[in-house]
């Protein structure tokens, strides 16, 4: 990972300016928190502080620990995340930096979007930010595919985008996980069909779209893994591009990236027309592909990732590396 150096934010006390920075995962017993803790166990340059299980819902105990660490990672439901930020703010100059893995602050003013690959200056912005919001799993794939085409003027900002996606059930929270793991859930289902999914504002804002996209999420009977697809009619894009033009725009945008790869050439998926949603599990990788039928003038852009990796915990650890100036 490319590590960006930065000045220590105002308010960092001498106590926090230690050689080994410390973090507190508020909500470490949840799915994302457990994954972050497991990933951080392999990192020697950061100390992970824990709170006693019986104190996890004690505001005073949590606030006391917040005052002792450099960064608090919030792995909480949205309302609880907002309450945690308020607790941290009450500490004044002892307030820690915050990395929020919930969706509570993803389009909020004063928060830096924690997707380092979004644009050239984003790693430095994350490195110096006091408040960082981790991206959602679905938007990570959608934004990765759409934003480079909008930036390259291939896709108009008001293009009527549709995003279809499937995720492992671990991304659906406690009730969905329980339903699948006890055999009560169907093998596959669409959801969010009221077209009010909470990821849509984030997807639209950071893709730089002026028209609200249609987002159709689904979940399958597997724990982790994700595919995000954007179908396109090529003649409706600026200049009626070919598949190679779309690939070139994506490859140029992510040139040199460690974690985002544009897959082209002789990859078996292009011959088979099939893509396994689980292939990147346990990694922080994001793969992008352009499947096209030039005869019909159609293409499908596909992003593949681990919804708990680059879509959640892996991304959080990557952001912590930037925030703490530590190699991850």
Describe the fold and architecture.
- The structure is a single chain.
- The protein is α/β, with parallel strands linked by helices and 328 residues long.
- It has 10 helices and 13 strands.
- The strands form 2 sheets. Strands 8-9-7-10-13-12-11 form a 7-stranded mixed beta sheet. The chain has a 6-stranded parallel beta sheet with strand order 2-1-3-4-6-5, with helices on both faces.
- α4 packs across α10 and α5 (137-151) crosses α8 (243-253).
- It is globular, with a radius of gyration of 20 Å.
Mean pLDDT: 93
Radius of gyration: 20 Å
Outline the low-pLDDT stretches: 1-17
Shape: globular
The biggest beta sheet reads: 7 strands, mixed
| Number of E-state strands | 13
Determine the fraction of residues in helical runs and give it as a percent range: 25-40%
Which class best fits the helix and strand makeup? alpha/beta
- Quaternary structure of the protein: single chain
Total of helices: 10
Along the chain, the helix and strand elements come as: EHEHEHEEHEHEHEHEEHEHEEH
Distance between the first and last residues' Cα: 7 Å
Tell me the strand order in the biggest sheet.
Answer: 8-9-7-10-13-12-11
């Amino acid at each position: 990972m490319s590590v960006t150096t930065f000045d220590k934010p105002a308010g960092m006390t001498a106590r926090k300016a230690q050689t080994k920075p410390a973090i507190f995962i508020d909500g470490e017993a949840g799915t994302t928190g457990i994954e972050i803790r497991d990933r951080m166990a392999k990192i020697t340059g950061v100390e992970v502080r824990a709170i006693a299980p019986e104190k996890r819902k004690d505001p005073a105990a949590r606030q006391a620990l917040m005052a002792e660490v450099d960064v608090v990672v919030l792995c909480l439901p949205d309302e609880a995340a907002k309450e945690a930020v308020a607790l941290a703010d009450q500490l004044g100059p002892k307030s820690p930096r915050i990395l929020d893995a919930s969706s509570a602050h993803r389009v909020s003013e004063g928060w830096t979007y924690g997707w380092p690959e979004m644009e050239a200056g984003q790693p430095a912005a994350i490195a110096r930010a006091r408040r960082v919001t981790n991206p959602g799993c679905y938007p990570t794939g959608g934004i990765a595919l759409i934003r480079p085409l909008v930036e390259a003027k291939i896709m108009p900002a008001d293009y009527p985008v549709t995003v279809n996606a499937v995720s492992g059930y671990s991304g659906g929270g406690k009730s969905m996980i329980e339903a699948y793991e006890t055999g009560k859930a169907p093998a596959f289902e669409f959801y969010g069909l009221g077209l009010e999914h909470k990821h849509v504002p984030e997807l639209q804002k950071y893709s730089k779209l002026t028209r609200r996209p249609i987002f159709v999420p689904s979940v399958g009977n597997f724990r982790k893994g994700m595919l995000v697809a954007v179908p396109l009619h090529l003649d409706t894009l600026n200049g009626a591009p070919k598949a190679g033009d779309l690939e070139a725009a994506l490859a140029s945008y992510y040139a040199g990236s460690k974690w985002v790869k544009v897959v082209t050439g002789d990859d078996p998926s292009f011959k088979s027309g099939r893509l396994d949603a689980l292939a990147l599990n346990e990694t922080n990788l994001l793969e992008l592909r352009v499947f096209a039928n030039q005869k019909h003038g159609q293409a499908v852009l596909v992003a593949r990732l681990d919804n708990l990796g680059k879509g959640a915990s892996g991304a959080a650890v990557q952001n912590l590396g930037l925030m703490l100036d530590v190699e991850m």
